[in-house]
Amino acid sequence: MNLEDQMKADESKAREKFRQAFQIAVNIYERYYSPYSKIKSRYNFYDVCDLIDYRHREHYVVLAAGEDGRISFARNPKDKYVPSKKTRMLFSRYVRRVLKIKSNIIPDRDLEAFQIAFKLAIVSKEKLLSSVKVLKGEDIVKFYETTLVVSCMTGSENSDKIKFYAENSDKVSLVVLDNLARALMWETSAGTFVDRIYGSEMGVSIINHWTNKNNYLSRDKLLFRNANVTVSLKMTPKTPCLDTLCYGRLSNNGKEVCISCGINIPGEGRLIRFTDAGDGWRFYNYY
Predict the structure, then answer these.
(1) pLDDT tens, residue by residue, 53-73
(2) Domain definitions of the chain by residue range
(3) pTM
């Protein structure tokens, strides 16, 4: 096989990898992000793939080397088999700058979500594991305002409740994996506890692995042991809905609260439960 034929074969393999990654990304997007899509027209990412196929002879889009979610394409058709002369670009940027698909067709938030799904489709678990970060204080508030991993507590309308975490930065952190997954992390009476993980299956798997690697308590281990762990916190006027440590006992005239996964919390103050209604908590005897 001469050099030109070898280059054609290599680019053909890269092209097939791109198509496989694109299909996986579509599946991830539709499962985890599509329910919250702002796309109002019938245009979707399958149409993007059709457009790429239509312009295949012109651009010859392939998966770029590396695991950063970039594609490689030829601006000049003569260069389609010459990797050194092709342009590397994030897939989302290619959609906007080259395909000229505007935000009224695919909104920025949806395109960002698909770029994350595309990266997830090609990146290795080892690299994802090294991308896990721990946020504290106001960084938690900012993340909840903009994250694509949505829940009843995300969005700027819940910032006044999420500040509960910022006020207790010595006891609670947020473990994040880009916009793929997130989990609250508590410093409890039994050690560091990583709460329920929100996100894609891959993201959940990576944070679970990170939790075990650091010998932290996971939600499954905590519930399996039926451990009545506690965390003492400052109380705020509004609070978020809590998943596992959803019961609390007030103290110091309501300025402090000790939370746990059960109602057997030491103290004489009123029992409360953290919910997603009203200010985020109610007295337990209301239930």
Answers:
(1) 777 777 788 888 776 678 888
(2) 3-123, 129-286
(3) 0.73
